[in-house]
Q: What sequence folds into this?
């Protein structure tokens, strides 16, 4: 069934699938090209009947072979001239019209990764799919040079030490990234403490990667304000980090025990956005609540630090749809990380996705969200009202700017409950 016959004059040339192209897709494309170009010259038939072909080839040996071979070479020339057209059609069929795989500087591994793989038994009855497709962010096309750099490596060898290149691609919307067939740089994690001691044990500078970062140790990081939710946040010993969520410094700071009480004991799993060094998840772990901390490694090795504390870091940008099913989390916690900037719709997309993964009756804890101006506060309030959440706590407070300018800043903290929508 997998063969194709071209009837030429009074002879027949037979092309086996494997001799021309490796995939059925290519054969189909090839056929259409050949048909278009040679229709006027040759009759074109598709014959699944192998007996008929055998009959022609084996029982008519007196036909003019040289005529046939002459015409076959004509076809081959036609095929060659159609190569460009084929590549274009294949690209469109792949669905990667925007990633020009025929460009000369595209890494071979990238092409290989993006190829579709037909299921050996055809259509899968459970899922309805006929092929396996690798997923890659469509905006990767805008950074094909970086992407090709990322996909250039020795197969089965060590990967280049390029996590920051990967993160750069992710931040440009090239997410998900293609997979790679090389071994990522491994860093021995010596001196990890057992759980739950690990939650508050200082992490050695030696067990994280500092490549691509300005600071080369945690002391250096602790002198910097990395974000509104992380200044001195790697200092687990004598800074303010250890007081977060258990000791209020302002009326905007809610305590973990108080918020958990609002959930009537039903809070077991949670999701923290922009969770800094993972302290929220650590405090929740002490309450037997499992929290996944969403973080990238912007200016600091957040992911490794959180993992070293025995907590779950999720390395994902906020532009990516969260890899969780609907209605699964009892709690979502977010601070100033919710400030995604851009058009109001950008925040809409994020909020709707957060709402999706939270179960009805679950809690949305907005923690010290910085309202740069009154308009921002109003927009966020309107958005929250759109979701129909029940306001269990709602505090708008002012704090004096930490940088010492004396200016006061407006913060919003709230605990909201997702309604059961019908
Ligand atoms: C076979 O084809 C060639 C080239 O077209 C021609 O010169 C030759 O006479 C043909 N022979 C027969 C037996 O038809
Ligand atoms: C906090 O601890 C670090 C080392 O753990 C030390 O260098 C620093 O002086 C301490 N700071 C205070 C205020 O105790
Ligand atoms: C957490 O779970 C452990 C083991 O089940 C239990 O001993 C401990 O009391 C729990 N802690 C809290 C705060 O519920």
A:
């Amino acid at each position: 069934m997998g063969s194709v016959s071209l009837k030429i004059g009074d002879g027949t040339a037979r092309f086996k699938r494997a001799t021309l192209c490796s995939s059925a897709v290519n054969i189909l494309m090839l056929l259409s090209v050949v048909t278009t170009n040679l229709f006027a010259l040759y009759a074109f038939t598709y014959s699944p009947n192998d007996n008929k072909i055998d009959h022609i080839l084996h029982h008519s040996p007196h036909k003019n072979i040289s005529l046939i071979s002459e015409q076959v070479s004509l076809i081959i020339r036609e095929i060659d001239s159609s190569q460009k057209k084929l590549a274009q059609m294949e690209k469109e069929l792949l669905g990667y019209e925007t990633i020009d795989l025929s460009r000369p500087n595209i890494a071979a591994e990238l092409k290989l990764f993006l190829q579709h793989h037909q299921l050996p038994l055809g259509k899968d009855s459970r899922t309805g799919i006929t092929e396996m497709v690798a997923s890659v962010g469509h905006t990767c096309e805008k950074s094909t040079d970086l992407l090709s750099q990322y996909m250039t490596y020795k197969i089965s060898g060590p990967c280049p030490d390029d996590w920051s290149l990967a993160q750069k691609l992710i931040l440009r919307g090239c997410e998900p990234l293609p997979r790679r067939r090389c071994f990522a740089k491994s860093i021995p994690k010596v001196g990890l403490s057992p759980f739950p001691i690990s939650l508050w044990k200082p992490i050695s500078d030696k067990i994280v990667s500092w490549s691509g970062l300005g600071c080369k140790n945690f002391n250096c990081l602790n002198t910097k304000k990395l974000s509104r939710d992380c200044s001195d946040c790697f200092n687990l010993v004598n800074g303010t980090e250890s007081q977060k969520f258990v000791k209020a410094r302002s009326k905007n700071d809610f305590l973990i025990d108080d918020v958990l009480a609002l959930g009537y004991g039903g809070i077991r799993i949670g999701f923290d956005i922009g969770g800094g060094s993972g302290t929220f998840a650590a405090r929740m772990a002490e309450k037997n609540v499992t929290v996944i901390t969403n973080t990238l490694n912007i200016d600091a090795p957040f992911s490794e630090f959180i993992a070293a504390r025995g907590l779950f870091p999720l390395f994902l940008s906020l532009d990516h749809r969260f890899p969780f099913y609907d209605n699964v989390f009892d709690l979502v916690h977010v601070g100033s990380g919710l400030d995604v900037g851009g058009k109001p719709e950008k925040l809409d997309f994020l909020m709707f996705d957060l709402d999706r993964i939270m179960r009805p009756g679950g809690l949305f804890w907005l923690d010290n969200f910085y309202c740069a101006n009154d308009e921002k506060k109003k927009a966020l309030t309107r958005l929250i009202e759109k979701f129909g959440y029940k306001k269990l706590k709602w505090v708008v407070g002012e704090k004096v700017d930490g940088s010492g300018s004396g200016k006061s800043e407006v913060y919003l903290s709230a605990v909201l409950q997702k309604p059961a929508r019908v």
